[in-house]
Amino acid sequence: MSGKLLLSTAYFPPPIYFNLIRDSDRIFIELEENYIKQTYRNRCRILTSNGILNLSVPVMKGNALKARVKEIEIDYSKRWQQVHLRAMTSAYSRSPYFQFYSESIMKIFLKSPRFLIDLNNELLLLCLGYLNINKCLLYTSSFERDDELPHDYRYRISPKNEPGFTTRPYIQVFGSGEFVQGLSILDLIFNLGPEAAEYL
User: Fold this and answer.
1) How many domains does the chain have?
2) Structural domain of residue 101, as residue ranges?
3) For residue range 73-98, what is the model confidence (pLDDT) as tens digits?
4) pTM here?
5) In the chain, which end has fewer C-beta atoms inside a 10 angstrom radius, N or C?
């Protein structure tokens, strides 16, 4: 796919998100849409010894109602950074590349950005660097509803319809024979390191 791509902001989204960025010429991240709960905008899925675990970045409830995504503030009254780092360590400390990448992720968490969009953007740029994807990201300045067009993936990449996008199987730390699809890019990066880009 080439040309324009429209994506929602996302917290450690699945590999298809990066696949689309790699194969597109003009990438826009949506800033002006109303925030949607229970999506990859503030959550990701990792694979633990007990199966899939959803990690969610808590947001301030008051501004999550009919607020634009760029206005959503992270709720630091909950110790989510420690919870997420502990969960990632438990899930991936035995993966081949966890030690190589986890410190950079921790540094971004410890910056405690005020807005969800800022956290997501920093993590997105970090992961793009790990995958050797060098693209200029643009940001929307107004909201346009054209989700029927082929370049609009804002609502297609979702925990609810993830099976439509598949990743080539690789060895997972807690894989028990059957490859688990729809996980965060973290699973791919921690398990494959520099080879992760080849699996997109």
Assistant:
1) 1
2) 4-199
3) 999 999 999 999 999 999 999 999 99
4) 0.93
5) N
